[in-house]
Amino acid sequence: MIQAPDLPLWAAIVVGLFVLLGATITLIGTIGLLRLKRFYKRVHPPTLGSTMGTTCILIASVTCFSVLQSRPVLHEILIGIFVTLTTPVTLMLLARAALYRDRREGRKDVPQD
Question: Which of 15, 21, 72, 83 is deepest in the core (most CB within 10 A)?
Answer without folding.
Answer: 15
